[in-house]
Amino acid sequence: MTVYLNGAYLPKEEAHISPDDRGFLLADGVYEVTRCYDGHLFAWDRHLTRLERSLKELQIQQPDVDFEAVSHALLKQNNMDTGDATIYLQITRGVAPRTHAFPKISVTPTVYALARTFDMNPADWTNGVKTITAPDMRWLRCDIKSVSLLPNVLAQQRAHEAGVEEAILIRDGVITEGSHTSFCGIKDGVLYTHPDSNLILPGITRAIVLELCDQLNIPVKLFPILESKLHTLDEMMILGTGSEVMPVIQIDNHQVGNGKPGPITMKLQKAYKDLITKTIAQ
Ligand SMILES: Cc1ncc(COP(=O)(O)O)c(C=O)c1O
Predict the structure, then answer these.
(1) Is the CB of 128 under 6 A from ligand 1?
(2) CA 55 – CA 61 distance, rounded (Å)
(3) Tens-binned pLDDT, residue by residue, of the chain (282 aa)
(4) Atom 2 (ligand 1): residue with closest C-alpha?
(5) Are 111 and 148 part of one and the same domain?
(6) Is the shortest distance between the CB of 166 and ligand 1 below 6 Å?
(7) Count of structural domains within the chain
(8) Residue spans of alpha helices (H) in 79-135
(9) Protein residue closest via CA to atom 1 of ligand 1
(10) Number of C-alpha atoms within 13 angstroms, CB side, residue 246?
């Protein structure tokens, strides 16, 4: 497999990072994951904008790299320009002797990119997935797509051990989002999701789904869902670059609705898949 590291395309085994890299020592870096359908980078501009924002918020220098060209080159060199794949991009503040404060001298950010084939059980989209709730133990800048993911790792491990797809996070009695997905609930035909704030990642799939709601006349309320009201929701879904629009049929031991994917969720899932098809055809 060929990867990209600091300007070079090289076999993954030869891609070495310094032990002084601040990403390794301090999780001082950001990342993005973009889905690629038959070589098309889906919602690329939105991913790039979010990446640039994450860098800016952390005062990491914007690398002078054409990430779109790198992504296409990786897809091509790894024979992934047909089929389903993802591009992982990571940028860290760079290499410097370990200090908490930023390095005194200006350092060049470390840039790493990798293409991976993506596969998911297609039955999940039709049958829906099970989830659990877990405490949201993350920091107060969840809007930055930082590589510092330990609370997400621990929550997802809980889900894995429970044999379910995702952990839905709860902070101060409200649902924020999933460990690696956004969360929406439907009640009486209205879609509810946590408003954009420092407590959630501004999910790109979520942003697209909110636009689809507008087109489909599905009313949206950007209100946090109370943990105490969770079991009254008619439908639930998780959203993400990998998950797309994924119906949730169970949360902890509670069955959602009639235990089958809900009609509004499926309508949005179809609209999202249609949008992908349209994008690929362009
Ligand atoms: C915490 C969190 N929320 C939401 C998402 C979904 O974001 P997107 O739709 O941009 O993939 C992710 C994706 O990694 C995530 O890690």
Answers:
(1) no
(2) 7
(3) 999 999 999 999 999 999 999 999 999 999 999 999 999 999 999 999 999 999 999 999 999 999 999 999 999 999 999 999 999 999 999 999 999 999 999 999 999 999 999 998 999 999 999 999 999 999 999 999 999 999 999 999 999 999 999 999 999 999 999 999 999 999 999 999 999 999 999 999 999 999 999 999 999 999 999 999 999 999 999 999 999 999 999 999 999 999 999 999 999 999 999 999 998 888
(4) 180
(5) no
(6) no
(7) 2
(8) 122-127
(9) 180
(10) 25
CATH number for the domain spanning 20: value is 3.30.470.10
For residues 126 and 18, the answer to whether their CB atoms sit within 8 Å is no
Q: Are residues 154 and 88 in the same domain?
A: no
Task: Give buried/exposed letters for 36-74 (b at 16+ CB in 10 A, else e).
Answer: bbeebbbbbebbbebbeebbeebebeebebebeebbbbb
This prediction has a pTM of: 0.98
